[in-house]
Specification:
alpha/beta; 2,3-Dihydroxybiphenyl 1,2-Dioxygenase, domain 1; 3-stranded mixed β-sheet
Length: about 140
């Protein structure tokens, strides 16, 4: 007899990202910051994690790490074009500088890569966050 209990929601691709841990000095502060920028909500704690559900089956699970410095990571979010301006507005309302480039040399500007729009900004732990309306064209 075959066990089919776990086959109904499985991805049809080889691998589908389900969640990733994001280290933070203050998990609530960082989770609420990202949720505010993206227009999402912070979920209920799950063990030591505080999740932000991205709405596509993937969660960022914020994990408080206080025993050593947080290593900066890069997180890129493909967002709907019609929500991009609202995200920029929320960054401005929070007093967060955004940049057109990943090296943060073009403040207060957005890029137009691949026919879309994009911007980079730091979260409270120095993670380099990116919002973009078109995926990168890869060779």
């Amino acid at each position: 007899m075959s066990d089919t209990r776990h086959t109904t929601d499985l991805p049809t691709t080889v691998a589908h990202l389900n969640h990733t841990a994001v280290y933070a000095a203050d998990r609530r502060l960082s989770a609420e910051f990202l949720a505010a920028v993206l227009g999402l909500e912070v979920g209920a704690p799950f063990g030591p994690f505080l999740p932000v559900d991205l709405g596509n089956g993937v969660t960022l699970d914020y994990y408080e790490k206080t025993d050593e410095p947080i290593q900066s990571q890069h997180y890129a979010f493909l967002v709907p074009d019609e929500r991009f301006d609202g995200m920029i507005d929320r960054l401005e309302a929070l007093g967060v500088t955004y940049y057109a480039d990943p090296n943060h040399t073009q403040p207060g500007r957005v890029n137009d890569l691949f026919g879309g729009r994009g911007a980079y900004f730091d979260d409270p732990d120095g993670h380099n966050m990116e919002i973009m309306t078109r995926p990168y064209a890869r060779p």
